[in-house]
Design a protein that fits this description.
The chain has 88 residues and is mostly helical. The protein has one domain. It has three helices and two strands; from the N terminus they run H-H-E-E-H.
Length: 88
C-alpha cells in the first residue's frame, strides 16, 4: 500500500486464498480421496496397457522410489514409428 495514499496500491498483487466454494469442493473430495485415487490409478493402468502395444509410443517412466500421481497422462509419440503424420 502506498504510504501517501490510504488504500491505494501502486503495484498489482495476488490473492491466492481459496474461495468458500473451492474449499467446499476440496472437503468433499478429501472425504472420498481413496476412491478417487483408486479410480485414477485404474484409468492410468488401462492407458498403459493399451498404449504399450502401439509402436512408437513411449510411456512416461516412474522411478522405483516414486509414487505415481495420475492426475494427467503423458506419453511421447515417435511420428515415423506410430504412423502419425505432421501437418506439413
Amino acid at each position: 500500500m502506498d504510504p501517501q495514499r490510504r488504500y491505494y496500491f501502486p503495484v498489482t498483487g495476488y490473492n491466492f486464498r481459496l474461495t468458500n466454494l473451492a474449499c467446499a469442493v476440496l472437503c468433499a473430495q478429501l472425504e472420498r480421496r481413496e476412491a478417487i485415487i483408486e479410480k485414477r490409478n485404474r484409468i492410468y493402468a488401462r492407458y498403459n496397457a493399451l498404449l504399450s502395444k502401439v509402436p512408437g509410443v513411449h510411456l512416461q517412466p516412474v522411478a522405483p522410489w516414486a509414487e505415481l500421481s495420475p492426475w494427467m497422462y503423458a506419453a511421447r509419440i515417435a511420428p515415423r514409428r506410430s504412423g502419425v503424420r505432421g501437418t506439413n
